[in-house]
Amino acid sequence: MGDMEEDIQYPSHFSSTIASVVGIFEDYGWYILISGVIMAYLYQRYLRTIVDHYRIKRDEAEYAAKYHKNPDLVTARLTAQEQRTLQLQEKYRRDAEEHKRKIEEKEAKKREALLNKYSEEGGHKLGASNNDENKSFKPGEKL
Question: Which of 44, 92, 132, 139 has its CA 20 to 30 A from that of 124?
Answer without folding.
Answer: 139
